[in-house]
Each structure stands twice: as C-alpha cells, then as structure tokens.
Amino acid sequence: KTISIQDFSANSVYENPKEMMKEAYKRTQATGSSTAIVCHLDDFTLRVANLGDSGYMVVRFNAHGPYLVSRSKEMQHEFNVPFQLCNLPTWENVRQLFAEGKVQEAEKLSTLLKNGTISNDYPEDAVNYDLETQEGDLLIMGSDGLFDNLFTYEIINIIKTIDYDDKSTENAARLTDAIVSEAYYKSKTNK
Q: pTM to 2 decimals?
C-alpha cells in the first residue's frame, strides 16, 4: 500500500523525514525489504532521511556551470549488502505457502527463517541530512540503479547538456530521461 503525505497529520511527522519513515514503516503490512529515502523541503531547508544505497545529490549552478553541493553516502553492512527496511515473513507465511501448493517458495522461506540470513534494519538507522538550498538548485534522488551505474561527474556532465535557465517541466523530464537512459545503458554494458 502506498502511504501518501496526506496520511500524516500536519502537526505530527510531516516536517521530519525520519519520523515520516518510521510512521510509514509501522503502517506497512506487505513482507519484503527496501532501501528508503525521504525528503522534506521547507522554504530552502532540505531535510533528508536516507537508509541504504538509495541517495540524493544537490547540484548548484554558477557562471562555470553545474557543481555538486551535497551528496548522501551509501549505508552498507558490507559490499553489496545495503541497509534495508524489512518486514520479515513469519512461520505462518511458510504454512500458508505450503497450503497454497507453493512448495519451493515455502522451502526457501523456511531455510531463510531457520538460518537467520535475513538482516533487518529500522528507520532509526537512517542517516539525517539537513542543508540549506538556494533557488535554482537541482535535487536528484535515485536508487542504486542510478548511483551504482553513474559517477557524480557523469551525472554533472549530463546536466551540462540542458538549458539551466529553462525551469519547465518538459526540461526536467528531458534531464530525467537522459540520466535514466545513461544509467540503464551503463548497467547493460558494464558487465
């Protein structure tokens, strides 16, 4: 279930990304795991809660072009094992899978539960970032699908190809498409 910002009362967790993450985590019913990033922009103050290898970068422009102002750091337990929010399955889930005739899935899940090979991180583990932005700054958020495939300088080089003065939604969509296309291309060619 998607939880929207309207689900939170205006005076509770709305301005605190980590509290928003905690509240959404509490309300989650589906099993699974995910990295998470939540941002809140209040006037020019950007507040971010990041958990795992999703992330953000803020780019600013001057007479020489775009440059990096801030970028989140990946959170990993070890190489290729990012922090993740988990809603762990239970033995009841195993019994239900067996009852549905999904024997292979049930056996895999049973092995995971027996071996304790599922790590579980919590919203409290998220790192907070607070920074002052300026009018015209560019916020880029992405998963490891972006940041594992493109270095910061490559993203900056793509940004250099756009018209910085064009603040239209169409220009933002062109930039998004260019960044996503390049990350996808590199994911397929960097084997």
A: 0.80
